[in-house]
Structures
1.
Amino acid sequence: MAWFNHRNLESIDLSHNELYLVPSYLPKSLVHLVLVGNNIERIPGYVFAHMDPGLEYLYLSFNKLDGEGIEPESFFGAYHSMTEMCLDHNQLIHVPLGVSEMTSLHLLRLDNNRIRYRANIYRVFLLHVYRQHAFPL
């Protein structure tokens, strides 16, 4: 991709581009990624692993994520840096794997999906509360 070697590029907005997966070869310096209103069905494993200091904001609202296309390694590299993630208006049936590992997450939007098991959302909420108040698990 044209932006891969840009050392100072921190934000990319690729909204409404008919993408079907989160693009690879994103800049190492990227902090803010907006992919709203595409046809994204898949977040490849390790797609964020090379980023330094790490992706902080990921907006994937209004896509076609259903959980099948989110691998256990999809968010590898963003576990400690991600602060906001919007996955609203997709087709998710459960909270994606890896979300509970995100230690800096302050905002998680999951509205307008197909999540039926509230226990999954409650577990993510409890992990967030425990981390905020330093309670032992």
Note: The chain has a mean pLDDT of 86.
2.
Amino acid sequence: MIVSEALVRGLDVCPRSEHQLSWRSRSPSGEAPAPGAERLREACRQAPGLIGTALAEFDFRRATSAVWGIVDEANRYVNHSRPWELAKAERAGDEHAGHQLDATLVALVRACRAIAERLSPFLPDAAARVARQCTPLDGRLLSPSPVFRRIATRTDACGKPAQAMGSLEPEPLGDPAQGVTP
């Protein structure tokens, strides 16, 4: 999931101690003014209705597409807002960049929480891992760790990909003609 990696990257370069997010950029209404995050907020807002309608019609593919719609918008937002560059500018003394960084990280954490909540019926373990990393404890996020395990690729003697380790394809059950069982 690119958005969580970018969020972690933004938090890693962020000068907040122990990955503590400062919420100083909140407006009086409590909504962080994240410029450029309108489409992301809209995807988060629309997802529950889209998922509910799709599930009522037993269309799981369309339901999960609504979740991935949030992920896609969050990825676009990360690429547009570039939180790692905002953190660098803040460290260089740009106070405005610091406020933008806060708003950007607030928008991304909210999106990740929405992803976790909407993903839970489909991938409950993954959703719990996402939620755990995006839920502050005592005002701090947990130290970042991968949400999904990486799938490494083995290479043959020529350096070409040979077989994926941790492949998602099922293991062969054996040859039923020879009575081999797993």
Note: The longest helix spans residues 95-119.
